Amino acid sequence: MHRVYCDANATTPLLPEVLESMRPYWIEEFGNASSIHLAGQQARKAVDEARETLAHFFNCRDAEVVFNSGGTEGDNTAIFGLMRAGDHFITTSIEHSAVLRAADRVAARGVEVTFVGPTKDGLIDPEEIRRAIVAETRRSDSSRTLVSVMLANNETGVLQPVEEIGKIAAETGAYFHIDAVQGAGKVAFDVERFGCHLCSISAHKMHGPKGVGAMYVRRGTPVESLIVGGSHERRHRAGTLNVPGIVGCGKAAELAMKSLKDGTVEKVAALRDRLEAGILKITGTGVNGAGAPRAVNTTNIRFEQVEGEALVIALDLKGVAVSGGSACHSGSTEPSHVLMAMGIDKNAARASLRFSLLKTATDEDVDYVLKVVPEAVERLRALSPVATGTLG
Ligand code: PLP
After folding, report:
1. What is the pTM of this model?
2. d(Cα 276, Cα 324) in Å, to the nearest integer?
3. 16 pLDDT higher than 90
4. What distance in angstroms lies between residue 326's CA and the mean position of ligand 1's atoms?
5. What is the structure's pLDDT at 135?
6. Which of 258, 291, 285, 305 has its CA nearest to residue 355?
7. 328 tagged catalytic
8. What b/e string do you get for 32-65 counting C-beta neighbours within 10 Å, with b at 16 or more?
9. Burial of 125: CB neighbours in 10 Å, binned 0-12, 13-18, 19+
């Protein structure tokens, strides 16, 4: 059966070059990057090179790159590492659960937490962030304000105006963290331009290995490490370095930067646009977040009178992997918190699917998806009591 993986926002496969770059560091060059002998030096050199690549990726100094286990750890570090009782944490209601659950936890520890909601297109209005900062109720001279906003939403792909938010953070003296997990490899990065103090990315969303990521930590940001122990990563993150993972993360970042320049991103955008236009030919469909700028690989489409989960399964049986809501919510029948926050009603949210293309996607992939989606939708609608009106 033809198989098309349209769930790149959940994870991506390693590119062969990434696997090759990691290979020596499992067996031949297995040293601990903290050891002073030759094996250790070889490992250290590989980590240093990866750090240099990530510094180039973020546009920061090498010393401002901290390797970690991925997006969840980066998000948690920003929030737990900066927020203390009496501080103010401002985020949005459409963040990933790595931010939302951390927000719940710091709220229980005496941090004032404000959630800013999106427009109907899934965009965060920077002025709402400013209002939340200005409306602080507990400000004392030593209290901190942290703003955390994602670069690209994992479900809709909507790109948030992080530069404007960065300017507001600078004007008001707030710290600013960007969850850039879904932006990495899809939009050009520049932490100077973003105006952030902290920025989290994850290798597995950009064809790197799972369980490894990196964080930009602006020099002087008083973020406490989440994991304590040895003095690794300039005391920002204890634990023996995952050398093969870090090397793979570096290679993935290098290839991601290349993709932004060599036409790959434009190719993916054209495929996504064709996919979207083709699906929209089916009656009773619409794009969630259509009016906002979006990551080039993502489209989130609602299918009236279709049960989203049933469509995910029907497409899977035809070899097409898509997702309803975020992968972290799979197995749950709760409609997406992102779509609900955009004012989309429960039924429409449940009837929405996310298609997210890999950068290796082809025209044939899109042709195949456009063949099977209309068939599956038609079949499900024919069976649906809602569609046939038998529910009365
Ligand atoms: N933030 C966003 C926006 C994500 O999409 C994800 C993963 O789905 C994460 C954070 C978590 O990243 P990781 O899987 O590396 O822990």
Report:
1. 0.96
2. 16
3. yes
4. 10
5. 82
6. 285
7. yes
8. ebeeeeeeeebbbebbebbbebbbbbbebeeebb
9. middle
